[in-house]
Amino acid sequence: MEGELGRLYQRWSHVLTQALAHLEAYIDFSEDDDVGEEVLSQVDVTVRALEQEIRGHLRDGRRGELLRGGVRAVIAGPPNVGKSSLLNLL
């Protein structure tokens, strides 16, 4: 996940994390008027723009291959350390 694609996916992750943080702030603090309705509209705009960017990326043939096909990974370790639990969570 290094290189251009890794940076792209990290940026997407950052955008989603930031949108989630704003949404949680709205839920937690909207009654106190610390966070206004404009936060919801900004989150909506941000997430919709990201959705369109991801859709475009997936339509781009070779560039969307990793997202469509996934990655191969190995979960290795000693017995009874939570490998199956991790896999089930994923």
User: Segments where pLDDT lies below 50 for 5+ residues?
Assistant: none
Evaluate the radius of gyration: 18 Å
N to C succession of SSEs: HHHH
Distance between the termini: 17 Å
Domain count, please report it: 1
- Give helix % range: 55-70%
Helices, by number, come to: 4
Structural category is mainly alpha
The main β sheet shows up as: none
Shape: flat
Question: What percent strand?
Answer: under 5%
Mean pLDDT: 83
Total strands: the figure is 0
Organism: Chaetops frenatus
InterPro entries: MnmE_dom2, MnmE_helical, P-loop_NTPase
Domain MnmE helical: 1-72
Pfam family, one: MnmE_helical
What does this structure look like?
It comes from Chaetops frenatus (Rufous rock-jumper). This is GTPB3 GTPase. InterPro entries: MnmE_dom2, MnmE_helical, P-loop_NTPase. Residues 1-72 form the MnmE helical domain. The structure is a single chain. This protein is mostly helical and 90 residues long. Helices cover 69% and strands 0% of the residues. It has helices spanning 3-29, 37-59, 65-69, 83-89. Helix 1 packs antiparallel against helix 2. The radius of gyration is 18 Å and the shape is flat. The two termini are 17 Å apart. The mean pLDDT is 83.
